[in-house]
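Onboarding guide, step 5: your first structure request.
Type a short instruction followed by the sequence, for example:

Predict the 3D structure of this protein.
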Amino acid sequence: MADPPGLVSSRKARVREGYDQIDYVPTQVVAEFLLKVFNPDNPVQGLICTSSLNQRPCAVFDLDSSCCVEQTTGWNARPETCLGLVPGSVRMVEANS
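The system replies with structure tokens like these:
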């Protein structure tokens, strides 16, 4: 797939303080395209890329919240794709106001 001008460089740019809503748009557009439009007959359920902020892996999943389940006996025997959460590992982080 060809690289649209400026898309890769805009995704690699650091998010500017106070502009996060705008600066994340290129990443959001690419993720939504790949998850919803790119191959509708065989949809992508997740993406893994390298974070431009810390060079660590970053994952994006296209799952319904009902598919985010605690890892208990039989959690991975469900017919739909699910994200198994390690019990006690999820924490709430307050949003910056």
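Each response can be followed by summary notes, for example: The two ends are 39 Å apart (CA to CA).
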